[in-house]
Design a protein that fits this description.
By secondary structure, the protein is α/β, with parallel strands linked by helices. The protein contains 17 helices and 13 strands. The chain is globular and about 65 Å long.
Length: about 400
């Protein structure tokens, strides 16, 4: 008899955690497992990549009403007789305005949001909250399962969350998975009482799939000039990614006389301020926000240099993919950078400021021998992580 699994994640719109889940779901042995997926939003960039065996569960009516604009939501909830949820919707709107930290806002909004979700009907062998916060809280509070697993994709200490709030939920989980040894060390230090529950499963990436998708578009995706150096970054337009450093570094490179085109694949709440910064620095012809791409790999293949300017990461899938494509890489010295890049061997780790990022890129532009050496070193690595799925199977046993 197949084991029944439930995965919970807010959406498959974009992001490393979302891409990680899609990769994982495409590796599961469906002769052994039956998989349900619960999403708060059924629209998303990666929906088309879900395997056909995955059953996407419907949203409850209460949440569909709750997620409408505030006045409309309250009116419809009252009309349907959901009086407690309507009251929670009012409190949710009020509290939402006065919490600047987005992570803490999501943590404390769960008590208002949770009433929208009745307990799941089915009994599961395992339920997996595949992202921090809401996914984990729902897994603990709303699911009946033999095992409950939380998944942490970040350096926990960098998100500014209320650890006492999460500690209550972590203690109720059977296992906590994270994506790198450094992230595990952070969790163990922050929550020593649950350290025996913490294990590492690296993000699943498949070199064969990435290379096949990279070859899907042979056109010049960047429309580059004859001598342009093309730089690529991938990630949500979010404070975490610190893409303002990329804009400022690009400006320095232009001022130093380099003909560069810098592109970012991703979308998010920082688009408007980034566009303003690009315009302020007269970089419209040199710095491009490309939005979301369901297949970013032709862009990665054709880029000359990959740059990651993050303030913090758990384990960046984009960096792993750039390594698979043997790209010269520059990354900022965030806390887990050394988990992914051996400095001067697999890429360059630079200080977290625009000058250092620009100097790292300049060095790669000018030193063809170094670029080739970094790429050659990456080409010798065994970078596929498909077998990481076996670690999950062991946790599910």
């Amino acid at each position: 008899m197949k084991k029944k699994l439930l995965f919970i994640i807010p959406s498959l719109s974009s992001g490393g955690g979302e891409r990680s889940l899609v990769n994982l779901l495409n590796q599961i042995n469906y002769s052994e497992y039956e998989v349900d997926l619960f999403l708060l939003n059924h629209q998303g960039l990666f929906m088309e990549h879900l395997p056909g065996e995955v059953k996407v569960l419907p949203l409850p009516e209460q949440y569909r009403l709750f997620s409408q604009p505030a006045h409309q939501s309250v009116f419809m909830l009252l009309a349907k007789g959901y009086y407690t949820i309507a009251f929670n919707r009012i409190l949710y709107s009020i509290r939402h305005r006065y919490r600047d930290n987005l992570s803490i806002r999501e943590q404390y909004n769960w008590k208002y949001l949770s009433e929208c979700f009745p307990p799941f009907d089915d009994q599961y062998d395992a339920a997996i909250g595949f992202l921090e916060k809401t996914s984990t809280y729902m897994c603990v509070d709303k699911v009946s399962a033999r095992k409950k697993i939380g998944w942490v994709h970040i350096d926990y200490d960098q998100m500014g969350m209320d650890a006492s709030f999460d500690g209550l939920y972590f203690r109720k989980l059977h296992q906590i998975v994270t994506v790198s040894e450094e992230c595990a060390a952070v969790l163990n230090k922050r929550f020593p009482e649950i350290s025996k529950k913490v294990s590492v499963i690296h993000n699943i990436v498949s070199p064969a799939v990435i290379r096949r998708l990279a070859d899907a578009d042979r056109t010049d995706v960047f429309s580059r000039g004859k001598r342009e150096i093309v730089i690529l970054s991938i990630g949500r337009l979010h404070y975490q990614k610190s893409f303002e450093l990329a804009v400022e570094a690009c400006k320095k490179l232009i001022d130093w006389g380099y003909d560069v085109q810098w592109n970012i694949i991703g979308e998010g709440e920082e688009r408007a301020p980034l566009m303003e910064l690009i315009s302020k620095n007269n970089l419209d012809a040199h710095f491009h926000l490309l939005g979301l791409k369901s297949n970013p790999y032709p862009y990665l293949l054709q880029a000359d240099i990959y740059v990651q300017t993050s303030r913090f990461e758990g384990k960046s899938i984009a960096i792993d993919e750039a390594k698979i494509m043997n790209k010269p890489i520059v990354v900022t010295d965030f806390s887990t950078a050394k988990d992914q890049i051996k400095n001067e061997v697999e890429g360059l780790i630079v200080e977290m400021n625009a000058e250092a990022v620009a100097r790292g890129v300049e060095r790669l532009i000018n030193d063809e021998r170094l670029r080739k050496q970094l790429s050659d070193n990456l080409s010798t690595l065994q970078l596929g992580t498909e077998t990481e799925i076996d670690k999950l199977y062991r946790l599910l046993a």
